[in-house]
Design brief:
It is elongated, with a radius of gyration of 27 Å. By secondary structure, it is of the alpha/beta class. The chain is built from 15 helices and 17 strands. The strands form six sheets. A four-stranded parallel beta sheet has the order 4-3-11-12, sandwiched between helices. It has a four-stranded antiparallel beta sheet with strand order 7-8-9-10. Strands 14-13-15 form a three-stranded mixed beta sheet. It folds into three domains: about 300 residues, HUPs (Rossmann fold, 3-Layer(aba) Sandwich), CATH 3.40.50.620; about 90 residues, Four Helix Bundle (Hemerythrin (Met), subunit A) (Up-down Bundle), CATH 1.20.120; about 50 residues, no CATH class. Helix 2 crosses helix 3, helix 10 packs across helix 12 and helix 11 runs antiparallel to helix 12. The protein binds one RNA strand of 75 nucleotides through helix 1, strand 5, helix 5, strand 11 and helix 7.
RNA sequence: GCCCGGGUGGCCGAGCGGCUAGGCGGCGGGCUGCAGACCCGCUUCACAGGGGUUCAAAUCCCCUCCCGGGCUCCA
């Protein structure tokens, strides 16, 4: 079965066929490193991480580029560069600020277990490429120079609006008074003139200035991936104008359509039903979220909804993810423990193959992670059932369950660092614990439950959970 | 105003013409001295409302209501 994806360009499902068989060229818009990364970034990058990992699991080689925006991204209300704004706020040089938050971003991505892109190009290191690109657009008649500024002439690109579905007549209506030097209100800046004393500026054929935000992704994508790429992704909020403008620039420049075959966009993340924003005071950074929930919990929460739908970050949903993760891990731990005492027999339960197939089918259908997770839960229940039903387990079956649950989880980036839970105390402590457990069993036989329960409670306080089963006590370790 | 998405059982969340999604929570049962874990069953065949198409609609069409988002700040 081929993979099918929902392409924002055309708003329909399409079979996924990369330009070069077996190789996926993928670009995802990275952050503007003006401040710490937030849960919205986590949502988008985790969703794409799962997509990339699954593509790799299916045998594709994925060449992945995600940029760092460190120049040119203006805030429309004030017209101020976001980096300069942040630098002012923190009393740093602009490039000091960029360093600080770029490395913080890398750290957050690593903490979330997100695969590193093959290249993470910075906009400020590609100014010359952008200047060349803009020169090309002017030569081809798609851009014009006014007073040290260069604008893209939207009227020369009839496809403008094809991604967002916004009609041309709508685009030229305006809430904010357009720059009167533009020929058309929908025209956007490729290069902007810098005022005196402005720190982030470069020399160009049009005078000192800096690039517009939209040109960077386009230039860097083409530089590292080629004139036509397979997947271009980002948050839904980037569809207009950012991605619309990228298409216009790239296709006008190269003359090749489409710039990207598949445009994938992630849905928003809200906090307790509200949009996350600084002004609402409900802004949650990745690092703060990680203090409360481990990376796998956040990932499981995010993958519990489809990447295109909106998800809400709230306590209930997160504790649900915690509970589900706990259950998967407990099952894996138990499977692992039982292998030693199991018999050398050869049968693999049929459900395992079925679940794997269903998992892959779900993921192949526009990366339906909730459907895929349902198969992991199914396997978990089936494994527990097997553990419970049979007194003599087969090594092959236990290993097959263990391997399949881990394999499928890891194919979407879950449980990357999973290790069977072990006691974190020295070997002697294990012996002491066993003596304690023997005594407790003796107490239970003599019906001295008050004492035996007290042992259980106290062990529980230090992270050693005793569960009495018909096969004797079972020990679990918690952090 | 215009343009995109949505509204599914107590909650989260798939499905998008016929075939049990799944999970959380709750209840009952099994196992248990108890607790927990786990398994089984139940949680009235739930699909915003109203029309229509169809042998058949949560799924397609029309209208209405409600929610989220975008319309040059945003992942």
């Amino acid at each position: 079965m081929p993979i099918r994806v929902f392409n924002t360009l055309g708003r329909r499902y399409e079979p996924f066929e990369p330009i070069q068989p077996g190789l996926v060229k993928m670009y995802v818009c990275g952050p503007t490193v003006q401040d710490v990364a937030h849960l919205g970034h986590a949502r988008t990058y985790i969703a794409f991480d799962a997509i990339i990992r699954f593509l790799e699991y299916r045998g594709y080689r994925v060449f992945y580029v995600r940029n760092i925006t460190d120049v040119g991204h203006l805030r429309e209300e004030t017209g101020e560069d976001r980096i300069i704004e942040g630098a002012g706020r923190e009393k740093l040089q602009p490039m000091e600020l960029v360093d600080k938050y770029m490395f913080a971003f890398f750290k957050d991505m690593e903490a979330l277990g997100i695969r590193r892109p093959n290249i993470q190009p910075r906009a400020s290191m590609h100014i010359l490429d952008m200047i060349e690109f803009i020169k090309g657009l002017i030569e081809k008649g798609h851009a014009y120079v006014v007073d040290g500024n260069v604008y893209f002439d939207v009227s020369t690109f009839p496809d403008y609006g094809k991604l967002s579905g916004v009609k041309y007549e709508e685009l030229i209506k305006h809430r904010i008074e357009p720059d009167p030097r533009k020929r058309n209100p929908a025209d956007f800046a490729l290069w902007k003139k810098a005022e005196k004393g402005y720190l982030l500026k470069w020399n160009s054929p049009w005078g000192e200035g800096f690039p517009g935000w939209h040109i960077e992704c386009c230039v860097m994508a083409i530089k590292y991936l080629g004139e036509q790429i397979d997947i271009h992704g980002g948050g839904q909020d980037l569809i207009l104008p950012h991605h619309e403008n990228e298409i216009a620039q790239a296709e006008a420049y190269t003359g090749k359509k489409p710039f990207a075959r598949y445009w994938l966009h992630t849905g928003y993340l809200t906090i307790n039903g509200e949009k996350m924003s600084k002004s609402l005071g409900n802004f949650i950074s990745i690092r703060d979220a990680l203090k409360k929930y481990e990376a796998d919990v956040l990932r499981l929460f995010i993958l519990s909804a489809h990447y295109r739908s909106q998800i809400d970050y709230n306590e209930q949903s997160l504790s649900q993810a915690e509970e589900n993760l706990r259950r998967i891990r407990d099952t894996l731990n138990q499977l692992y423990e039982l292998v030693d005492e199991a018999e050398e027999r050869g049968e693999v339960p049929g459900e395992i193959g079925e679940a794997r197939k269903a998992f892959i089918r779900a993921m192949e259908d526009d990366f339906n992670t909730p459907g895929a997770l349902a198969e992991i839960y199914r396997l978990t229940r089936s494994a527990n059932s097997y553990i419970q039903s049979s007194s003599k387990h087969s090594k092959t079956a236990l290993k097959a369950y263990y391997g399949a649950i881990l394999e499928l989880s890891q194919s979407i980036g879950l449980l990357q660092n999973y290790k069977p839970a072990k006691m974190k105390y020295p070997a002697d402590a294990a012996k002491v614990l066993n003596i304690l457990l023997e005594i407790r069993e003796e107490l239970r036989k003599r019906r001295l439950y008050e004492l035996s329960d007290s042992i259980r409670d106290k062990l529980s306080e230090i992270g050693i959970i005793i569960e009495d089963t018909n096969k004797g006590p079972r020990v679990k370790f918690r952090k």
